[in-house]
Design a protein that fits this description.
Blueprint lengths: L4 E8 L5 H14 L5 E8 L5 E2 L7 H10 L3 E4 L10 H9 L8 H8 L1 H10 L3 E2 L2 E5 L12 E5 L9 E3 L5 H9 L4 E6 L4 E9 L5 E3 L3 E4 L6 H5 L4 E3 L6 H18 L4 E9 L2 E8 L9 H8 L4 H12 L1
Parallel strand pairs: 1-2, 1-4, 5-15
Antiparallel strand pairs: 2-3, 6-9, 7-8, 7-9, 10-11, 10-12, 10-14, 12-13, 14-15
Length: 313
């Protein structure tokens, strides 16, 4: 009988998505087939402390020793110092196979402004917007409804829909509390549609069925994680819209250089898809959007995780 594959599952992280990441990592660790995989959980505290499976502090050097004894690393750290390529860089330097996108696509996709530039370069529409810093925020004038968001944060943290001049400055302050750069975009009127893209172990790149988010206003943190979100998969789309969304998702995944699985978020407007953002470490509980989308295509949660680990190897 062959030895089980040792998989280090890393959760937590030093950012505002810490709790979400813990949930994703715990779900991944529990769902990996124990007959095939020996799961080695590692946790990064909010202050950067690394902890082992017994939650004992072991520091980065101790974590490196644990990682060296593993066959594959499965990072499930959403947001900065994780999803942005930081953990991919650690794995690259250590020569360890890892699940998900590499350093460059992680950094590019985490930066919503950079993502817009890449998307526009390959012909994918994005919302008109401007980049604002703490130094320039005071010069921004409100003229119409906008969405204010940190350039590099996730889970809708620090995101505000601004419909009046009085709420612009508080929205900028909330976003600047999480990042030193802020994106101010025009409001896009359209259906919120997500598509997941997966690079399989055989090298094939496949798109999931589309998922529609039905929300009143911004799909915020409470909507995402409060258990009340109205997520419809497969989304009700005609053939033209379905193909346009899939083509745009595949093009964005390819242009950024993604690997593993990524979730590509769009607004579907009367003029076609408008890219919102790309998540290279999307939520990965069994009830998160990406597993739901692939489940609708017949790929169950445990099988999706197995595909990701085999692809990394």
């Amino acid at each position: 009988m062959s030895a089980r594959t040792r998989v280090a599952v890393i959760g937590g992280g030093q950012n505002c998505e810490h709790e979400v990441s813990l949930a994703s990592a715990a779900s991944v660790a529990a769902a990996l087939d124990p007959g095939t995989y020996d799961v080695v959980p590692l946790t990064i505290d909010r202050d950067g402390t690394w902890r082992d499976r017994g939650l004992r502090p072991i520091g980065l050097s101790g974590a490196a020793q644990v990682l060296r004894g593993c066959d594959v690393v499965f990072p499930v750290v959403h947001g900065p110092r994780g999803e942005d390529g930081a953990l991919a860089a650690l794995c690259e330097l250590a020569g360890l196979p890892y699940v998900g996108s590499g350093i460059r696509p992680g950094a590019l996709a985490m930066d919503k402004w950079a993502t817009k530039l890449v998307a526009q370069a390959v012909g994918i529409a994005t919302a008109p917007g401007v980049l604002v810093s703490a130094a320039t925020a005071g010069h921004l004038r409100w003229t119409h409804p906008v969405v204010v968001k940190p350039v590099a944060a996730g889970s809708s943290r620090g995101v505000s829909l601004v419909r009046s001049v009085e709420t612009l400055r508080p929205a900028l302050d909330a976003a600047l509390a999480l990042d030193d750069r802020v994106l101010v975009e025009d409001v896009v009127e359209g259906r919120e549609i997500d598509i997941a893209v997966l690079r399989c172990a055989d090298g094939a790149v496949v798109a999931s069925p589309a998922l529609e988010i039905v929300a009143d206003g911004i799909f915020d943190y409470d909507d995402k994680y409060g258990g009340e979100a109205d997520l419809r998969v497969p989304a009700a789309l005609d053939d033209v819209d379905a193909k346009a969304l899939e083509d745009a998702a595949l093009a964005a995944y390819d242009a950024l250089g993604c690997a593993g699985v990524a979730r590509v978020d769009f607004f579907l407007t009367s003029a076609g898809p408008v890219l919102n953002e790309v998540n290279t470490v999307p939520g990965m509980t069994e009830h998160s959007q990406v597993p739901r989308m692939f489940a609708a295509a017949g790929l169950g949660y445990a099988d999706l995780l197995d595909e990701l680990v085999r692809s990394a190897r």
